[in-house]
Amino acid sequence: MEKMTVRDLDVQHKKVLVRVDFNVPIKDGVISEDNRIVAALPTIQYLLDNKARVILFSHLGKVNHKDPEKTESDKAKNNMAPVAVRLGELVDAPVKFVDVTRGEKLEKAIAQMQDGEVVVMQNTRYEAGESKNDPELSKYWASLADLFVSDAFGTSHRAHASTVGVAELLPSGLGFLVEKEVKALASAVYEPRRPFVAIVGGAKVSDKIAVVENLLTIADKVLIGGGMAYTFFKALGYEVGQSLLEEDRVELAKEFLAKAQDKLVLPIDNVIADRFAADAHSKVVRNSEIPHDYMALDIGPATIELFKKHLQGAKTVVWNGPMGVFELEPFAVGTLEVCRAISSLEDANTVIGGGDSAAAAIQLGFKDKFTHISTGGGASLQFMEGKQLPGIEVIANKE
Ligand code: ADP
Ligand code: MG
């Protein structure tokens, strides 16, 4: 079902409230990475070009609302002001920052807006009601505008006042960023060209149960790597030494293996180390040979070859979770080679979801080598679990 987008709204002379994701890293008032601000520009520019009045709001970091002392220091730390300054440098329009999330000052600034101008509101999480999707807060924010645009994919899995509450009260559409994410993920997960190969790794089975479960029902093969593989090893009766192991998930791993033996592909060798460190003593061993004082930190060379073989000819690849501890160079090879294999596929739809997986692919130099690298960690995971994202679900379908 296609959702309404910003293109379907008549935005001229209208006050348009846009939920963006301006949750950028800030240290001592300095933004170290402005990717997310840049990513919001197409929607903002479209609205300005079409003579709208653009009111932007976003969360930034976390604000503790239980301990009053923490509330104040969190607010000081997560002030949206530097973001508005940066936006002003990037966009060719007047940008006004209002340092509150409600009240006369904000209402006045909005009342004085002209077409083609931008107001940036203070951090939505200054409001305790934001994360609770508080109806009064949603109603207040909705009262400030005529239309709502949802362009914060990374928070679309959270039902907050600024993502869901407001969208329920105003005519709404998706922004370009969210539209792109939804199209890319949906084409892989809901309309995959086959063969469809899924690769799941990362730290824990418990984080990925629903992802594995869903991908097993829709993919032709599910390749398992990373730390979660060792709970599967245990389920098969191997000793895993000091490797990541979730004892309480061994039974579940057994169930997966019993249900989907023909689909699940596990590593056949491993890079093991005597410590969790880049300069640890390491070697390659088969699954049955992990000594009790060693830990497996990457898939081995035979596994890389096996995974490459399964990837051959794939038309859809969905990848979530690194194959090893890619943050330490000696254990990044598995992730690097899987990146390389996926990105060299011809005529395939290749999609990465998951915060660390996206970071790994970018860090290893594969930024432009996939069809789509999702910007939303938790949101893309939820998508791969086959679940609806409340912030997208709430937007009306096209007639
Ligand atoms: P994503 O954010 O992409 O969903 P996860 O958060 O599940 O991925 O997992 C990423 C983390 O998993 C990385 O920090 C990586 O170091 C860790 N990891 C991968 N393989 C192993 C392993 N064999 N042992 C311990 N940690 C691992
Ligand atoms: Mg992660």
Q: What's the rounded overall pLDDT mean?
A: 96
Do you know the CATH architecture of the largest domain?
3-Layer(aba) Sandwich
So, the CATH homologous superfamily of the largest domain?
A: Phosphoglycerate kinase, N-terminal domain
Q: What ligand molecules are bound, each kind once?
A: adenosine-5'-diphosphate, magnesium ion
Parts with pLDDT < 50 across at least 5 consecutive residues: none
CATH topology of the largest domain: Rossmann fold
Molecular shape? elongated
Q: Please state the CA-atom Rg, rounded to the nearest Å.
A: 23 Å
What's the CATH first level of the largest domain? Alpha Beta
Total of domains = 2
Terminal CA distance: 10 Å
What's the number of extended β-strand segments? 17
Helical segment count: 15
Which key phrases capture this entry?
399 residues, alpha/beta, Rossmann fold, 2 domains, six-stranded parallel β-sheet, elongated, binds adenosine-5'-diphosphate, binds magnesium ion
